[in-house]
Amino acid sequence: xxxxxxxxxxxxxxxxxxxxxxxxxxxxxxxxxxxxxxxxxxxxxxxxxxxxxxxxxxxxxxxxxxxxxxxxxxxxxxxxxxxxxxxxxxxxxxxxxxxxxxxxxxxxxxxxxxxxxxxxxxxxxxxxxxxxxxxxxxxxxxxxxxxxxxxxxxxxxxxxxxxxxxxxxxxxxxxxxxxxxxxxxxxxxxxxxxxxxxxxxxxxxxxxxxxxxxxxxxxxxxxxxxxxxxxxxxxxxxxxxxxxxxxxxxxxxxxxxxxxxxxxxxxxxxxxxxxxxxxxxxxxxxxxxxxxxxxxxxxxxxxxxxxxxxxxxxxxxxxxxxxxxxxxxxxxxxxxxxxxxxxxxx
Length: 346
Description:
Layout: H1 5-15, E1 38-43, H2 49-65, E2 68-74, H3 79-91, E3 94-99, H4 108-116, E4 121-124, E5 135-139, H5 141-155, E6 160-166, H6 172-188, E7 192-198, H7 203-216, E8 220-225, H8 228-241, E9 255-260, H9 263-271, E10 276-279, H10 282-297, E11 305-306, E12 312-316, E13 319-324, E14 328-329
Parallel strand pairs: 1-2, 1-3, 3-4, 4-5, 5-13, 6-7, 6-8, 8-9, 9-10
Antiparallel strand pairs: 10-14, 11-12, 12-13
Helix pairs in contact: 1-10, 2-10, 5-6, 7-8
């Protein structure tokens, strides 16, 4: 199911004009609250083109939103480093924290500790399993898995073999994408064999797994990469070495669908090296996260329902989630100017 490009355009437009939150999406602001304070931002990793793009957008979107940035750190995919970084931010005076915890189970106690200190947390792209959050800013990750399944299932005519590079299953994103992909394949395409390959979001593990599968099952016809930012380059390198990096018109072509929407993926779609991706808006992730941080410091209570930036806020057991649209990108819409990957400074 594709999301109309005009919906994504609304998201992009709103991230350029992050002011007060719509009354459609938030409650009232208590009198006397000024929304003054600095926001600490922890970047989750530096080995992903997607997250590096997100990092570049942070200072730009902070300026547009009128948000003062405190410390910006990088936890390098390590939960203990994230906890240490957050402690340093608080010591240095951060009044709100934006993070993207890759281990969504282990961060819970630290979130509750921050909530007890009155420091709101906005979690980007990942939804903590427990622990209080003010807002989660992410797209529907189950939809990622379903869209990838439906695309590959149709391209393969419901038969054949597919390799799935699973993200870390300690992450809600890895679980959501993997579970939805499996459910869709089992239900809609039972004659497709799926090889589930754990990767912990590491490109080297994905490349090694694909190399092994091509040796044992040379008739692989599809690949689902749950994160193009880390899996794209090693996958294309291996296929090129094997003489399998050929256009869709060639019978040897292996159909590939990815997740992220980075410029490199869009270029690969244009070249016929991969066939589709689900675009996560790195620019809007940054802008909307800082927008909610500003709202949190102002004392605004989020409200369920549609927002002015084309998304939908839902209630969680431990907070709220702003669900942003993420379209499937193919050769048919790869040049859409509303896609963040077509305007990224990469």
